[in-house]
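Could you join me in thinking about how sequence relates to backbone shape in a protein? To get us started, please write out a protein record for me. Would you write everything just below, so we can both look at the same thing?
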Amino acid sequence: TQPGEQLQTDWGELYVMMGGTPVKVCFNVNTLGYSRRFHFWCTDSMDAEHTYEGLIRSFEYFGGVTAEVLVDNQKSTVLIPSNQGKPQFNERFVDLAGRYGFTPRACRPYRARTKGKDERMVGYIKHNFFVRYRSFESWAHLNQLAEQWLREEADPRVHGTVKEVVIERFKREQPLLTALPAMRYDTSYLECRQVAWDCYIDVRGNRYSVPSRHAGELLDIRIGLDGS
């Protein structure tokens, strides 16, 4: 893989203690194909919106965007996989790709070994970061420790395959990443609600008032990943 050519994305999951309670952590890991530098973000869901958010956070961490993003065939990115190299991608994933300027690419079915760089990073994170850290105060605390560990442990390591210090190899890749867009992509949930005649809409168990002129109308709403 040439510098700046490709990023591979995947998910892992495991249970940890958070605030004294067992919690399932989903972590999105994104690996640069050339330098093998990677970034991961921990959250509570592996759905499409969290996949896009994880990708964006990794682009921001690397300070740029690769020419391609290689994905597995999860529904958040690929609606219909193909062995002919022409999968049907999720429409919003295509929109994200257009905004950030990368070409989406999918593994051919039953050939996930083409994404082996990223899958090895899932195991590396489980057997290193999550062995060292098993208990967290909050999601913010978890992700703060994750980025600290990346800077102090993962980036300075000598990679077993390329036999170079990862952060030093990244210095040759970083200039070939393309610039981030001026405006960050909105990863909020996009949903539709009908306004009741009393001028309220129901959103995930809560009722919100809207101007009376919208009574009876269908409105598009955005819900942040934190539920706001």
